Amino acid sequence: MRGKMEKGREQMKKDEKRVYRLTKASYVVRILVGAYLLYTVYELVNNWQECSGLTLILSVLGTILFVVLGVFFVIQSIYMLRTGRYAGGAMDAGIEGEEKAENKESL
Questions:
Q1: Is 99 strand, coil or helix?
Q2: Which of 1-5, 53-57, 70-74 holds the top average pLDDT?
């Protein structure tokens, strides 16, 4: 019974070290979503003249939220793609190499 518990603990430690990365396609979709949010901001700003009262306040708050999210998605995704931090990218190869070395040491 103890042997199974120790193996379970070792597996949990390995799982904690494992890094899950998004695919390249996921980052491209995030860039498109960010661009769409920024386009929506452009449309909202153009329609501010027609708004008044509570509608104007909600429109301004939505605009601020969409700008923050849109810029975050675009910049973060471009950064991850340029640095190779996606599944199968340059940074992923280094992590797999470390895991293989750890597996050899444990044998």
A1: helix
A2: 70-74
pLDDT tens column, 78-93 = 999 898 888 887 776 6
Cβ atoms of 46 and 39 within 8 Å: the answer is no
Q: How far apart are CA 22 and CA 38, in angstroms?
A: 23
- Write the DSSP assignment of 40-92 as a string of letters: HHHHHHHTGGG--THHHHHHHHHHHHHHHHHHHHHHHHHHHHHHT-STTSHHH
Question: 81, 24 in Cβ contact below 8 A?
Answer: yes
pTM here is 0.65
CA-CA-CA-CA dihedral for 71, 77, 78, 83, to nearest 10: 140
Is residue 13 very low, low, confident or very high in pLDDT (cuts 50, 70, 90)?
Answer: low
At residue 14, the 3 state secondary structure works out as: helix
**Which of helix, strand or coil describes residue 103?**
helix
CA-to-CA dists, residue 68 to 4, 32, 76, angstroms:
48, 15, 12
